[in-house]
Structures are given as structure tokens and as C-alpha cells.
Amino acid sequence: MASVPFTSQPLGFVTSDRFRFARVQKNQKLGFPVSRAASGSGSAALAFRDLDADDFRHPLDKQNTMMLRAIPGLKEVGKALLGTVTEQVMLLENIGTSILVSKNQLSDLHNLMAEAAQILNVSAPDLYVRQSPVPNAYTLAISGKQPFVVIHTSLVELLTRAELQAVLAHELGHLKCDHGVWLTYANILTLGANSVPGIGGLIAQTLEEQIFRWLRAAELTCDRAALLVAQDPKVVISVLMKLAGGSPSLADQLNVDAFLEQARSYEKASSSPVGWYIRNAQTSQLSHPLPVLRASEIDEWSRSSAYRSLLKRGIPIRPQQKF
To answer: Parallel, antiparallel, or unpaired for β 126-130 and 137-140?
Structure first.
């Protein structure tokens, strides 16, 4: 299944993003209240109570989702093969090997998720923390079942509070847009095509290319969800920069503006015919766009009239509000 970081893992914010579906295959510690009001940042977050997924969905995501919906039998096959067994396997795995976040367990993380969910007008999923040296976050979403998000301890160590909430918001974006369900269906259909003698492999390859195109577009949508919660493009871009080449010991030396300039250099270098060909070859088998391209996209959208219009619709979260 598409367990794909920027190379070959599943859908989510991070470089080593592992989305687990049918194929079961911070320098700043959190030690204090994390809601924006309690953090002393001086500005209350804006919540979008009537927010719809299409309000921030990337045009490429819309286009590629329509293409997936047009694949005959995709939804029916997925619904037939996805049952309680898959959900139970993943649920028991996480209960057995991770920590379930709640008001009484890692409450600071619980507050971050609750606030992000309120801002995006979506129900908060269960959140688990898993011990791992690989910075990672992923989501499980099966239609009609309780979704959950998993984050790795190394990701908590790498990111600041605001950056970590941006990652949680990115995962919430997948849930709000029903990305998880479509990814699961697509993976199942690809697996089925692979089993067809002769042309099955060719069918699977074609489907895989289409799925990767959709995955990359879906990531751009969820980066927008992260921005709607962070409400500061530098926070989202900083996450992308750290995942591209950051570490806790280097974090205070990283420069978001320099990373954006690097992104512009990549755009310029890949604008020639040869550069365009190399860029396509470099990204065609990736589930996530390159970090520099994601940074450029979120920087551009943060300056768009569409984003400014959404902010005007926001309602400030009252400072005294608790989660």
C-alpha cells in the first residue's frame, strides 16, 4: 500500500509518512498548556465553523479525485474488502504499542488536536504517540469507522508546538477531505489488477501512476489545512524544511526565508525543457511533492485572495476557552 514519505510511503504530512490501510504490511518539549490562548502568543486563533473541504481543496486534488471516482467498481470493491478485521488489526496494534492521547494522558497534545479540529470544523480523531526514531505521522480512515492519527516521538522532539499542531492539522485535512477512504479503495483495486494474468501488471502500473498523481495533489490540499490552523505560512514551511534536512540540534540555525529562496531556485532550474523532464522523472513515483515545491505552493496560497477570504470568515476563539 502507499506507505509513502516523500518517496514511497502513505499519505500524511511527513517525509516518512506511513498510511496503514488494507495492506497491513521541537526542540521545544511539550510541558505546558498548548492552546493558543494559553501559550501567551498574544493572538487568538480563527475558527472556521462553516468550513467545507472544497473551500481549501487544491484544484489538482479536485481534478484527480474526480478521476478516481470515475474508475469502475473502485468504491464497491473497497467496501466489499474493507471490514472490521482490518480496523481491529490496526486498532489493537496501536493500543498495544502506542500511547492513546486523552485529557488525562499527554493532555498538551490532546489540546493541540482539539484546537486544530475546532478550527477546521471537523471531529477530532483518536491520537496515538508511538516510540520511533523516524519522524513520522500517519492516519487510518476507513469509511464508517473511527479514524485515528499516529505521531512518532521523534517528530515531537523535532518540531515546535506550533509546527506540531500544523502536522496534526495536515492529518485532519486528510480526514475532512475523505482522502483516507479513497486511498484505501485505490490500493485495493491496484492489488486486484496485479493478480490479473497478462495485462494485469500494465493495468496496475497505470492505476499506480494515477494514484500517485492524486496523492501528490492531496498533499497540497492538506498543507493548506495546516496553514488554516497555523495561520502563519512560515510555520508550515518550517515543518517542510525540518523534514527535508533538519534535526533538533540544527533547528535554531534553520532559516525559512533561505529555504524559500532555495525553492525558487529549484523552480527556475526546472523550468527549461531538460529541467522539466528531469523534474517529472524525479517526482512521478513519489506520493508526496518535493519539499521545496510544497513550500512554494503554500507560500503562494498564503498570499492569494482565496486564503484571505477564508480568514475573513474566521471567528476568533475566545481566550478563556479551554479544551
So the answer is: unpaired
